[in-house]
Amino acid sequence: MRKSSLRRACTALVAVTSLALAATACGGTTKKDVSKENASAASDAKANPNAELKKGLTVGFLPKQVNNPYFTSADKGGEKALTELGSKYKEVGPSSATDTAGQVSYVNTLTQQQVDAMAVSAQDPGALCTALKQAMKNDIKVVTYDSDTKPDCRNAFVSQASAEDLGRTEVQLLAEQIGYKGEIAILSAAQTATNQNTWIDFMKDELKDPKYKDVKLVKVAYGDDDAQKSFQQTQGLLQEYPNLKGIISPTTVGIKAAAQYLSGSKYKGKVKLTGLGTPNDMRKYVKNGTVEAFELWDPAKLGELAARTAVALSSGQITGKEGETFKAGDMGEYTIGKDGVISLGKPTVFDKKNIDQFNF
Ligand code: RAM
C-alpha cells in the first residue's frame, strides 16, 4: 500500500495542530527526508525516463487566487492535460492574493485528502514551506508553477519564462516608449509575491545600465492583484508624481486596472503603460491608444506543463534533478534546469499588429 496509516495520522495531526509540532512529530516516519536536498527537493530515487505514465492519479491545483482569469486559464490547461492523461484534476484556493494563511490550510487539506501531486502558485516564498515539506514527506509530489517557493520546499518549479528576460524586457519596452527619459513607477501584485519580486529585481538591475541614466524609478506600489486596489494605486501614483512618464505593471490584474484608470483620464496615451497582461483583457486599451505593447506567455500552456510535470514526477520519470528530461505530450521535450526549474519558453510581445491573433 502506498499510503500508510501513519501517514493518515500525520496528515490529520497537521490539520488539527500547530504545523511545526506536527512536522516534528511526523519527522521520523517518513520514507525519505526530502528537506535535506540543497537544490530542489529532488528525491534520492533514480529517475526512470522509460517509466510508463501512471493513470488514475489525482492532482490538486492551488493557484494564488481562484477568481483571477489568469489562473482560470492556467488551471484549465492543467485540467485538460490531466483528463487526456487519464488522471483527475481538482482545484482549491483562496480568493485573495494576500491570504497566505489560507494557502497554507489548502496545502494541508490537499495533503489530508491524499492527492498524488499538487501544483501550487505560491503567494509567499517561505510561508508554505512547512506545509509543502509535510506533503512531500507523505509521498505527494509538489510542483510550483507561476510563483515559486524555496527550492527545497518543492520537487520542481514550472516557470513561465526566464525571470531575467521578463524583468529586463519590460524595462526595455517602457524605456523605448518614453524616449529613455523621465520618472517611472511599478504597480505590482502582493508585496510578498515571489514571481513579481524576482522580476522587479531584474528591472532594477536593468535600470543600472547607463542607457537609462535619465530614467528614474520613483516608486513600487502594490495593488495586491485586487482590481479596485490596483486602480486606486494607479490614481495615487499620478497624484504623487504628476510628472510620471510611465508605469510597468507585471501582473495581469494590475495592468488591466491601470489601463482602465489611464484610459478614462487626461493621462491616456501620455503616461505609457506596459507589463504583463492577457490579450483579451488588454485588447480594448491597445485599440484605444492607452497601451502600445505588453507581454505574456500562454497561461493554459503553463498549467498544462505543470500538470504534465506532476504526472511525470508521480510516475517516476523524473525526480526534479537538474539534467533530467521528460516528454510533455504535444508540448515536446523539457529538461530540468538548475534548482529544479523547468522553463516554459519565451514570452510573446503583443501590440496592435498581432493582438487579434490571440484569444486568452
Ligand atoms: C497575475 C498574478 C500571476 C502573474 C500574472 C502575470 O495574474 O500575479 O502570479 O504571473 O499576473
Give a description of the structure:
- The chain has 360 residues and is α/β, with parallel strands linked by helices.
- It folds into two domains: 3-160 and 299-345, Response regulator (Rossmann fold, 3-Layer(aba) Sandwich); 163-296, Response regulator (Rossmann fold, 3-Layer(aba) Sandwich).
- It has eleven helices and 14 strands.
- Strands 2-1-3-4-5-13 form a six-stranded parallel β-sheet, with helices on both faces. The protein has a four-stranded parallel β-sheet with strand order 7-6-8-9. A two-stranded antiparallel ribbon has the order 10-14.
- The longest helix is centred in the N-terminal third of the chain and has 16 residues, at 69-84.
Reported CATH architecture of the largest domain: 3-Layer(aba) Sandwich
Gyration radius from CA atoms, angstroms: 21 Å
The helicity comes to 25-40%
Largest sheet: 6 strands, parallel
Put the structure in a nutshell.
It contains 11 helices and 14 strands.
List the helices and strands and how they pair.
Blueprint: H1 5-16, H2 19-26, E1 58-62, H3 69-84, E2 88-91, H4 100-112, E3 117-120, H5 129-137, E4 141-145, E5 156-159, H6 163-177, E6 182-188, H7 194-206, E7 215-222, H8 227-240, E8 244-249, H9 252-263, E9 272-275, H10 279-287, E10 294-296, H11 299-314, E11 325-327, E12 333-335, E13 341-343, E14 348-350
Parallel strand pairs: 1-2, 1-3, 3-4, 4-5, 5-13, 6-7, 6-8, 8-9
Antiparallel strand pairs: 10-14, 11-12
Helix pairs in contact: 1-2, 1-4, 2-5, 3-11, 4-5, 6-7, 8-9
The structure holds alpha-L-rhamnopyranose (RAM).
